[in-house]
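TICKET: design request
STATUS: open
ATTACHED STRUCTURE:
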């Protein structure tokens, strides 16, 4: 055994790592997650209180769903992931769909344009949600998926209803920009 301990070499050199591409993806990831609010702000105990009535609860839910939209999407996807741990096929499909979520929702530098028409953030989120649910239902884990989605929606609505929304915007410009843009915001580059 004359080759014992020798490190085999490949006749084909490995492709060079494109550091510029990795840097660009890292920058896009940071910018894409910029729409995510700090979890500490989301779960601030001092900002939790019961609503004064039905219309106050609806107002809080609407405001919080817009303000914490990326956080809620991450939370729902995480709950879906946990529910699929014992279904490897469903988990693989979810992993592929999470890649779509990352690139089409969280990492976009600018609005999505399809056939010359600009697609807003809310439409992208709805389409990705329907695609995710539809594809996962084909993996025969319907009970787990529907149970986790129902649980996630209930928890999101409870949080959005009891989280006061009067202290969300730290400055008037951020509030005005969100209201005038049709409740959509795009991460700045």
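STATUS: resolved
RESOLUTION: sequence designed for all positions
ATTACHED SEQUENCE:
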């Amino acid at each position: 055994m004359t080759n014992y301990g020798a490190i085999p070499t490949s006749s084909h050199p490995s492709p060079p790592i494109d550091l510029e591409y990795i840097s660009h993806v890292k920058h896009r990831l940071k910018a894409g997650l910029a729409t995510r609010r700090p979890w500490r702000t989301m779960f601030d105990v001092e900002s939790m209180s019961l609503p004064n009535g039905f219309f106050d609860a609806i107002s809080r839910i609407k405001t919080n769903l817009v303000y914490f939209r990326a956080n809620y999407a991450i939370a729902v996807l995480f709950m879906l992931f946990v529910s699929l741990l014992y279904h490897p096929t469903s988990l693989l499909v979810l992993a592929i769909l999470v890649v779509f979520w990352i690139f089409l929702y969280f990492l976009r530098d600018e609005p999505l344009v399809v056939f010359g028409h600009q697609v807003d953030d809310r439409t992208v989120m709805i389409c990705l949600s329907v695609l995710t649910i539809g594809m996962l239902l084909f993996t025969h884990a319907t009970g787990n998926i529907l149970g986790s989605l129902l649980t996630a929606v209930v928890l999101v609505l409870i949080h959005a209803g009891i989280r006061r929304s009067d202290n969300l915007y730290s400055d008037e410009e951020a509030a005005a920009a969100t209201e005038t843009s049709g409740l959509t915001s795009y991460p700045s580059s």
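CLOSING REMARK: The beta strands are 112-114, 117-119. The radius of gyration is 21 Å.
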